[in-house]
Design a protein that fits this description.
CATH class: Alpha Beta
Low-confidence stretches: none
Strand content: 25-35%
Number of domains: 1
Oligomer: single chain
Bound molecules: NADP nicotinamide-adenine-dinucleotide phosphate
Distance between the termini: 13 Å
Number of strands: 10
CATH architecture: 3-Layer(aba) Sandwich
Number of helices: 4
Shape: globular
Structural class: alpha/beta
Order of helices and strands: EEHEHEEHEHEEEE
Length: about 180
């Protein structure tokens, strides 16, 4: 938890925990994208929105007509304080980003990429990881870190398929 906000990671990874190649995702899974949108957008309190927190490379990889991600508070991490991200708020450190979660913010979802996942996976405040496990192998140059043992076995929340590529939605909850 960060100041009463749940802190989650959401990621899609292949069987080797590959998550990206050449600054993009090496797959195009429509149902998975829908799942991502549902999980990161839904709130219990209709007056609140979730924060989606991402690295600058991930922001750059979202097509301009799809950003900012709608109905969510978009926060982009960069060490360049002059960086302009239309429709999003820029933060120059994780600490600064977390301070942007206010009383209108419900949960915080870290949505990538590799650099940001690495930093947040090791944080004791991380409450859970939504992992879409893709049953295939892609040639990735960016990978998800090893999930700490403190998360135990995941809960399988179902699965789906796009263009003959199947995948499962797993949820790792911090134990104890
Ligand atoms: N499969 C998935 O679910 C998924 C999700 C998201 C992304 N991806 C993929 O992951 C790849 C991108 O990952 P990446 O590791 O290359 O880049 P990234 O994590 O998206 O962004 C890295 C950049 O974010 C900024 N940054 C990161 N940590 C920071 C910190 N603590 N403080 C200030 N700034 C910080 C820096 O920006 P500056 O250089 O501007 O300082 C850094 O160069 C792409 O291939 C993308 O498609 C996959």
């Amino acid at each position: 938890m960060i100041n009463n906000h749940n802190l989650y990671i959401i990621v899609a990874a292949d069987q080797e925990f590959g998550i990206g190649r050449d600054g993009k995702m090496p797959w195009n899974l429509k149902n998975e994208l829908k799942h991502f949108q549902e999980v990161t957008t839904k709130t219990e309190d209709p007056d609140k929105q979730n924060m989606v927190l991402m690295g600058r490379t991930t922001w750059d990889s979202i097509p301009e007509n799809h950003r900012p991600l709608k109905n969510r508070k978009n926060v982009v991490l960069t060490r360049n304080s002059d960086f302009v991200a239309d429709g999003a708020v820029v933060a120059t450190s994780l600490e600064e980003a977390f301070l942007l979660a206010d009383d209108k913010t419900e949960d915080i979802y870290v949505i990538g990429g590799g650099r940001v996942y690495s930093d947040v996976t090791s944080m004791p405040q991380l409450d859970g990881i939504y992992l879409t496990q893709i049953h295939d192998i892609f040639e990735c140059d960016t990978h998800f870190p090893v999930i700490p043992e403190s998360f135990g076995e995941p809960v399988n929340m179902g699965g789906s398929e796009d263009d003959d590529i199947s995948y499962n939605y797993l949820f790792y909850k911090r134990q104890g």
